[in-house]
Design a protein that fits this description.
2 copies of one chain form a homodimer. Chain A has about 290 residues and is α+β, with helices and mostly antiparallel strands. Chain A has 2 domains: about 120 residues, D-amino Acid Aminotransferase, Chain A, domain 1 (2-Layer Sandwich); about 160 residues, D-amino Acid Aminotransferase, Chain A, domain 2, CATH 3.20.10. The first copy, chain A, contains 9 helices and 14 strands. In chain A, helix 2 packs across helix 3. The model of chain A has no long low-confidence stretch (mean pLDDT about 95). Chains A and B meet through helix 1, strand 5 and helix 6 of A and helix 1, strand 5 and helix 6 of B.
């Protein structure tokens, strides 16, 4: 979807405690050039980002998203973002969202090459219509991520827990999935453990329990997965972080890819083999995820 | 170094055989905004690039660079670049280079989100002064790349042979090297084989032979490494692509990181242990690499 509104943000120091950051914001025409060719986001994918779901003007999970932005910035040695400034930017940008579902993106780039400071901006656009996908589900293929399960903890410079702008591999994996006739991909470690999708987290139901791969395995901690787990726990279900093998996925009683914009997409097949699903629970989860949080 | 000149390029179809592409070029003020926030290069690190060394206005290894740009584009499912157009863009941009050493960058991005075509541009800037580094050398640390040696061939969606804009890990590895008190890093596979540096290729001398890790192992095929091998062969030396272990590096008679702008930087220490060097050959290689090719 075409962006609708963009806000350039002059990043404030994390210690800056002013009450109002609006004089650090510059509204932009989204079709006009806004970034210089010296931008390290564009030259090196050097920066971090967040995508936030907005429903009828309400941005969901704002706190989880700004906290993860700060976490990603820390892993990438970027100056700590001022979270009050980002919360206000989200408010200003979400106010420009169209009715229905929309997506707010936050981008914190290392800035212009040899420049003094990061570059930051936020955008809002109408979200794609995922209603049919949430109902009918998605097929996935498993794709080798090349790493073993310990890589993330052993080698923090691989930035596996950071949501960086360097998403070329994620995009290539989605293209490979489509080439294989599937809708999405699930990354699997070299040693056979399931991780995450290129732009979503995996949740499986095994018997009555809900499981997701442990973030320590070098994956991004999903904000939507966190929300779903809180919801399930509050409804008396058991949730757990676990090391899951590819066969745990194919033997699951149901499985979902969850993310901030598509929300809970039930997985109907893995590598061509049908997977059971739970349409009632899927609908319940999406009703929850579409409600203001 | 600050960019000096930028040229926006309207990418021509690969089959377009016109003699002159200058009407597809738009010179830009490098400090002015040139890119929209919808750019996938900036949102996703989704694109490919090249850095070309320029000496006194002459761009070196142009053919190897444009061929690698096309190779990277193919691996990323980007439309095939029109190489005649890129050759002419390099000419136009290099003509704006300052005297002495400069760097031309080519960027081919997937374009604006949901847009019809890739975005492309080229820039030129003065190069940093690497004369002392070429003479005095660099210290390196080895850093785990997380992958095993077979990952690149097994999982092409990891894009290991493509020079993509998703360089956040490469940049993080350089920061980690500096944190450890070294100048640069050499990536090592999970199974103990040396690969490449974040922005350079590795060449080692073992006895009279010159060896570099085989590109099939999931590394970028270095244009400078190719030039150095051609030079060495033409001077009666033996060169080989080989699977090299970390201990082949520490036992080498000499080793270099070679790249288009820094050229041949002799490695003086690996993980704190001194490495032998060959100052005469290093000087000879850099004299060659600074000559017009």
């Amino acid at each position: 979807m075409a962006q609708r509104f963009a806000l350039m943000i002059a990043p404030a120091d994390a210690a800056d405690d002013r009450a109002d950051f609006r004089d650090t914001f510059t509204p932009m025409d989204v079709t006009a050039p806004a970034l210089s060719v010296g931008e390290l986001s564009t030259q090196r994918g050097d920066g971090v980002f967040e995508s936030i779901g907005v429903v009828d003007g309400h941005a969901n999970e704002v706190e989880a998203h700004v906290q993860r932005l700060a976490h990603s910035a820390r892993l990438c040695d970027l100056p700590a973002p001022n979270l009050a400034q980002w919360r206000q930017a989200i408010e200003v940008v979400a106010a420009q969202a169209p009715a229905g579902e929309a997506v707010v993106k936050l981008i914190l780039s290392r800035g212009v090459e040899h420049g003094p400071a990061p570059t930051a901006w936020a955008t809002v656009a109408a979200a794609p219509d995922f209603r049919a996908v949430r109902r009918n589900g998605i097929t996935v293929v498993t794709l080798d991520r090349g790493y073993d399960l310990g890589a993330g903890e052993r080698a923090p410079w691989l930035l596996l827990g950071a949501k960086t702008l360097s998403y070329a591999v994620n995009m290539a994996a989605l293209r490979e999935a489509r080439r294989r006739g599937a809708d999405d991909a699930i990354f699997v470690t070299r040693d056979g453990y399931v991780l995450e999708a290129p732009t979503a987290s995996l949740i499986i139901r095994a018997g009555g329990d809900f499981l997701t791969p442990a973030p320590a395995g070098g994956i991004l901690h999903g904000t939507t997965q966190l929300s779903v787990f809180e919801y399930l726990e509050s409804h008396g279900r058991t949730t757990r972080y676990e090391t899951l093998t590819a066969s745990d996925l194919t033997k699951a009683d149901a499985a979902w890819l969850v993310s901030s914009i598509r929300l809970a997409a039930p997985i109907t097949a893995v590598d061509g083999a049908p997977l059971a699903s739970d349409p009632d629970l899927t609908a319940e989860l999406n009703t929850f995820l579409l409600s203001p949080r």
